[in-house]
Amino acid sequence: MYDLNFFRNNLEQIRHRLLARGFVLDAEAFQDLDGRRRQLVTESERLKAERNQATVTIGQRRKTGADTSEQQQQVRAMGERIAELDEGVKQIDLEFRDFLARIPNVPHDTVPLGNDEQANVEVRRWGTPRDFNFAPKAHWDLGPELGILDLDRAAKIAGARFAVYWGLGARLERALINFMLDLHTREHGYQEVLTPFLINSASLYGTGQLPKFAEDSFRCEGHDLWLAPTAEVPVTNLFRDETLNAATLPLSLCAYSPCFRSEAGSYGRDVRGIIRQHQFQKVELVKFTRPEQSYDEHEKLTRDAEHVLQKLGLPYRTVVLSTGDTGFSAAKTYDIEVWLPGQNGYKEISSCSNFEAFQARRAQIRFKAGKEKADFVHTLNGSGLAVGRTWVAIVENYQQADGSVLVPEALRSYLNAERIDATGGRLV
Fold first, then answer.
1. Could you report the per-residue pLDDT of 348-359, keeping only the tens digit for each?
2. Residue 417 above 90 pLDDT?
3. Radius of gyration of the chain from Cα atoms?
4. Where in the sequence of the chain do the CATH 1.10.287.40 domains occur?
5. pLDDT above 90 (res 268)
6. Which tens digit of pLDDT belongs to each residue from 22-63?
7. In 3D, which of 336, 338, 411, 409 has the Cα closest to residue 139?
8. Which CATH architecture best describes the domain 26-101?
9. Residue 128 to residue 83: CA distance in whole angstroms
């Protein structure tokens, strides 16, 4: 979301920068709205000045005992016209709000130029993919063989893109959630928060999912409630319409939540296994910072998410997304991609984004220090991590020739097991 005056005064610069991400700004439509608004405001201000002068004149004539009925009728007519003009301005302001709400964030100057993911730039790698002495299996084969993953029964009770976990498969999911929350709160300085899993439209608008991406979310019929697509939405909106004390910034929060997505634009992608689901679990990292802190904090947040994979011994690489691949609300995004041997490639497991003031302006989240003028915070978020994809990475990277899966050392105390084999899965 943009400040109207800033947008008006920097229209050509913004138009040019948005072209880098493949968005064509309708500058003529903006200028038409702006021109109509200016015309209404100018006429309204002229009439208000005339009305004020007429009111003074009426007062003077009354003192002399003169008849002012005609002048009073003119003043009333002016008032009615002013009310019409002001209502017209309100309606155009709503059109402006809708117009600006559909325009993506301007990419940061350090974001590489490009049309899609082919232009993403790798910035670092950690770990070496394991050299197997047997052909590694994908999780959609290995999980059912161990009895810990059941896609057929999930389809029976809910449909495609859902999963049922059994035994140690379910416990592994739970262990990962607790491990991630403990790591982020004990070592990385985040405060844990548990928010509602249902959210209202204002919350989705605040973080940028509405109005543009309504089809990507699930709505509760008959209620202004949606299933949260990620904990980013409720956690960011905790401070909607509030002014934070600058002394509390940067504020770092982490939250577990189930996430619900219709995946409306992804049919045909990742159709096997549990890479792309309608429901999945995630631990989310969210930061609120001063503007001058946000890019340092963006680097820290990304490193915090990477640390989860390091503790689990999972090879990964980190890439900075190109202008054409960066999400609607983000100014800059790092994707962390974990190595999946069963699929012989890297797969995104976390997106860590700096939204600058884009979300804060939509959600009206400000900060203030002393007598300084209040300003919008910068918001950041990233998965720390997507639990289901971490589950996949462990099963595929730690699989053994006998079909079992070793449990990473960091998880053994959470899972109370060192190995997952067929005895730890479905028994019926």
1. 999 999 999 999
2. yes
3. 28
4. 26-101
5. no
6. 999 999 999 999 999 999 999 999 999 999 999 999 999 889
7. 338
8. Orthogonal Bundle (1.10)
9. 69
C-alpha 70/C-alpha 66 separation (Å) is 11
Identity of the amino acid at 5: N
Supply angle C-alpha 127, 131, 135, rounded to 5. Answer: 130
- For residues 339 and 345, give the distance between their C-alpha atoms in angstroms, rounded to a whole number: 6
pLDDT digit string (tens) for 240-258? 999 999 999 999 999 999 9
Query: Exposure of 59 by Cβ count < 10 A (0-12 exposed, 13-18 middle, 19+ buried)?
Result: exposed
Are 313 and 329 in contact, with CB atoms under 8 Å apart?
no
- Give, in order, the Cα–Cα distances in Å from 11 to each of 8, 34, 114, 331: 5, 12, 22, 18
Q: 273 is written with which tokens?
A: 């296994």
Q: Which helix (H) or strand (E) holds 312?
A: helix 294-312
The number of C-alpha atoms within 13 Å of 279 and in the hemisphere containing its C-beta is 13
* pLDDT of residue 101 exceeding 70: yes
Q: Taking the CB of residue 328, how many other CB atoms lie within 10 A of it?
A: 16
Residue whose pair of structure tokens reads 């309204």 in the numeric block = 44
- Identify the residue with better confidence: 2 or 9: 9
DSSP 215: G
CB 334, CB 151: distance < 8 Å? no
117-424: CATH architecture: 2-Layer Sandwich (3.30)
Give 98's Cβ-side CA count (13 Å radius): 7
Where in the chain do CATH 3.30.930.10 domains reside? 117-424
Q: Decide: 347 and 338 in contact? Cβ < 8 Å.
A: yes
pLDDT, tens digit (0-9, with 9 covering 90-100), for 319-370: 999 999 999 999 999 999 999 999 999 999 999 999 999 999 999 999 999 8
> Position of tokens 């548990």?
194
